[in-house]
Structure formats: C-alpha cells, structure tokens
Amino acid sequence: MRERLNFRHVWTVFSKEMSDTIRDRRTWWAMIILPVVLVPLMTLIAPRAAIRQIENVQKSRSDIVVVGADKAPTLIEFLKGTGDFTLVDADPATALENRKALAIVYVPADFEASLKSETPAQVRVAFDASDQKSSLVQGKVDKALGTFSQGLVAARLQAKGINPAILSPLAISMENVAPKERMGATLLGMILPMLLAMWAATGGMYAAIDLAAGEKERGTLEALLTVPVSRISIAVGKYLVVVVSSLIAAAISVLGFAVAFKLSPVSLEPGQTASFGLTLAQIGWLFLIALTLSAFFAAIELTISAFARGFREAQTYLTPITFIILIPWMLTQFSAPADIPAYFFYIPVMNAVMAFKELVMGIVNPAHLRDTFLFSLIYAAAAVRIAGQFFRRESVLFRS
After folding, report:
1. Model pLDDT for residues 160-186, shown as the tens digit of each residue
2. Cα(117)–Cα(164) distance, rounded to whole angstroms?
3. Calculated CA dihedral for residues 389, 392, 394, 397, nearest 10 degrees
C-alpha cells in the first residue's frame, strides 16, 4: 500500500527532531560555533597576516648574499645605501635552504670592467620561489638593480651631454577607478561563494548523521518506525530539520563574514579599504540558491546516514562532501563571471557556486539564476526521492 504524506505528522516529527537538534552540542558546534569562529578568522586574520608579511618585508632590511662582492664595489655601495638590505657572509649553496639569506646575487668578476666599457654585466639573482618571503625579497632586489641600472644609464647620458629624460617619453601614472564597493565585491567573489556553499551543504551534516545513523546506534529508530505514522512523513520531518540546520549555518557564515568585513575592510589593493553591500533582491536570490543547495545535500546526507550502520560510519562516508564543494570553487575562483560558460549553470554545485559569485559581485543575470534554480531544484527532487526510497526499505535501514 502506498504511504501517504501527512503534513501534521511531518510537523510533529520536525518539531521534535528540531528541538533535539538544538539541544545537541555537536550540532551547535557545526551549525553555530564553527561558522562564527572560522569565518572571521578566514576574513580577518588570514588576509591581515599576508598583508603584514608583505609590509614587513618591504619595510625591514632583508638578508642577501652577494657572490663576488669584492668585484663590484659600486653595486655594493649602492645596495648598502638603499637601506633595504643586509649583506651577510654565508655559503651561497646552502644560504637559501637554511634561510640565512633570502636571495643570492651573483656578480661576475668583470663587473666593474663591464661598467667602464659600457657593456652589459651579467647579474644573476637566485631565490626560493616556494618561500613567499624569498619571493618578496627577490622583488626588492630586482627593483634595486633596476634603479641602479637606470642610474648608470642616466650618468652615461649626462656624460655625453644628453638629457636622461629622453629615455622617458611618457610620464605614466596608474589610477584605480574601481569604487570601494566593486573592490569589496571582488574580494567577496573569491571567498563568500565558497563559504556559502560549504555551510549550505555541510551545516546540517551532523544533524543528518544523528537523525538516522545516530538513532540507529541508540536503538530509537526502530521504536519511531513502529508508531502509526507513515515512513515518508518521518523521513520528510527529519529531512526538513537537516535543511533548516544547513540554512541557519549558511546564514550565520554570511553574517559573520559581513561583520568581519565591516570591522576590517581588507582590500586587494595595498593601502586602500573596500566596502560592499547587497540589495534585497540579491539577498533573496542568495537565499533561494542556498535553499536548493541545502535541499540537495540534506537529502544526500540523510540517505547516506540511513545507509550507515552507525554514527562513525556515517561520518566517514560524509566527510568527502567537503571536498566536493571545494572543487568547483577552486576551478572558478580566479575566473571572471563573464568568462564562465553557460553550461556551468546546469552542473550541480558548480551552478550554485557560480550564481553566488555573480550575485555577490553585483551581477544579476536572470538566465543564469533561472537555470541554477531550476536545475538545482531538479537535482534536489531526485535526491529527495532516493532518500524516501531508502527510508521505506528495512533491508537498508537495518542492514547488518
């Protein structure tokens, strides 16, 4: 006989399970505490730490080794005069590896002779590209050598009675005309889609594990299935708890990000600040897309949890979901929305991440939003159908 969905029973199951979920410390940890703690950390501390490292390298003296320093007194005097470098005496073969120096400058034995004869002197700079600090120091060395070279050219031209300005026919100045809102949106577009997708997908994971695998482990699921309520009503009630938990986690992560960004408006441009704002329409679309993504993953998580024999087994099966979210984010993180092909908005998860990115960057593309919403709805409906079938089969629910 076909089981009927009874909305009064669904509400009863939802109310009871939601109440239990709210009292569960593990769910609170995944749904509330992690987004509140992790999001400000990722928003405030990580970018600040990167900016501080760049500023420290730029402002402080950097240790370098100059191989052949005794052959290039002119260059050594210039480097010391910049105040940017400390010349250390270390073995160039191991100095980078041991971090006794962050760059090695190799000067040829005929350096001074080349300068006098006005022929190019071959200078080689070695650095460790896997070490961010070494890469930054390489930039400083490159800039200093460029300045030294320009000084030589200017001196040679002046000696010949030629104005050095002849080498600079253009006086170029760069001006960033992007408003603070767009700069903020660029940063948002790199981080917020991942956070939203991550918490919309995994915010209710522990609730899903507890509502099926956890109940099996405690032996309470058998008792629940004996009550005169259709299994589809029980499954839908539990499913809605997972969806609501995911949406709460996603909303908290966005709020945490907004508060952190407001308190510390980190910009991609050094010395500048950024700001951002979302319209009600953008917030509405963000909610709808997050809802379909949560609906899709809630069904998958509840299905896997129902299949698992216990809490730990369900946890093991569900952990890869985190990486599934990261893949589309990594593939599109540095892509401009205009470069994303239309079929990306048909692919599950990928479409949600891209729709999030467009929305937070102030782009409202009706076709992309429509495709993302409809396709996500179809995927969620299919996942819900599979979850319902799992709850009807005792051979799956109580497999040994």
Report:
1. 888 888 877 788 888 777 666 666 666
2. 19
3. 60
